[in-house]
Every structure is written in structure tokens, then in C-alpha cells.
Design brief:
Length: 117
């Protein structure tokens, strides 16, 4: 899932497995995407553009279930040991979380909306 394909297309193609799909659901108005033809053909890349306002409720349920299944199967490993450290902030420190993102913190910055139990 890419939210800035024009900026990320080269990286997307480097890390995408052959036959993979690049799903694009966000863009700035008037922005264009230049597709590297040869690299895309070599990997048999599929581009899927999504406008969430036109997706049906059934399609959304199916997508959520598919993502949940992939996550349960270990498709996205997170944590320091996987090269994707998690930095957590309590809800009352949301501005500090935004600062961490602006300072290009490596990994994922998360805001916990419920106190840890």
C-alpha cells in the first residue's frame, strides 16, 4: 500500500516480489506517476489504484479480513529484531509523537489511546 507512489515508485519496485501488486490510494491533486516500464514488465507488476470513497462495505470487510489473516501469518514482522523498531507514546504525549515523526524516527511511531494493562 503506497500513499506517495511518485516519491516511492523506485523503492516499491526494488522490494516488490515478482508478480506483486503496488496498491496506490493517495495522491496530491494534479500529481502524476511515471511508471518505469521495463522494471515493471520484468517483475510482472500489477498497479491497483484505490479510491476508498467508492469501495463498498463488503469490499472493505474483505480487505480487513485479508490484512488480518496476513498479519496473523507473520507477513509484517515488527520490532527491533526485525529492523522496524516501535516507539510508543501515551495519548497525552501526542505532540511528542508528532515531533518524533518530524525528526525522522526510525521505525513506527505509535500512540497508545488506552493505558497499558
Amino acid at each position: 500500500m503506497d500513499v506517495n507512489a511518485p516519491a516511492n515508485i523506485e523503492t516499491d519496485l526494488q522490494i516488490l516480489k515478482p508478480g506483486g501488486t503496488i496498491s496506490i490510494y493517495a495522491a496530491n491533486p494534479g500529481e502524476s506517476l511515471t511508471v518505469p516500464i521495463r522494471e515493471s514488465m520484468t517483475k510482472n507488476v500489477r498497479y491497483q489504484f484505490i479510491l476508498t470513497y467508492t469501495v463498498t462495505d463488503d469490499q472493505k470487510r474483505h480487505a480487513v479480513a485479508a490484512v488480518a489473516e496476513a498479519l496473523a501469518a507473520g507477513a509484517l514482522r515488527v520490532g527491533e529484531e526485525h529492523g522496524l523498531p516501535l516507539t510508543r507514546f501515551p495519548l497525552e504525549q501526542t505532540s511528542a509523537a508528532h515531533d518524533a515523526v518530524e525528526q525522522e524516527t526510525i521505525g513506527k511511531v505509535l500512540i497508545d489511546v488506552m493505558p497499558a494493562t
